[in-house]
Amino acid sequence: MEIEVRLFATFRQGREKIQKIKIRENTTILDILNIIDIKEEEVAIMLLNGRDATSDRIVQDGDVVSLFPPVGGG
To answer: How far are the Cα atoms of 13, 14, 27, 60, 73 from residue 53, in angstroms, in the given order?
Structure first.
């Protein structure tokens, strides 16, 4: 199975902004975070196929996971 991971803002530093990742059945978003070396607490917004998701959601073949860090500025 293969999913697409889309990274935004600072998560793109040193990584591709869109990554295709091969996964096994019962892989969670947390597993994906571990694969791409992003800590769960660093993620402000996590989407699965454009909808709000939690790290324990299981991803399926063809899913798109989007990850956003907190936005700073003033």
So the answer is: 23, 25, 14, 13, 25
Spatial CA neighbour of 51 closest among 38, 64, 35: 64
pLDDT digits (tens, 9 = 90+) for 7-57: 999 999 999 999 999 999 999 999 999 999 999 999 999 999 999 999 999
73 occurs within a structural domain: no
What is the domain count for the chain? 1
Q: How many CB atoms lie within 10 A of CB 70?
A: 10
Let me know: does 15 contact 7? Beta carbons within 8 Å. yes
Is pTM beyond 0.70? Reply is yes
Residue 74, domain member (yes or no)? no
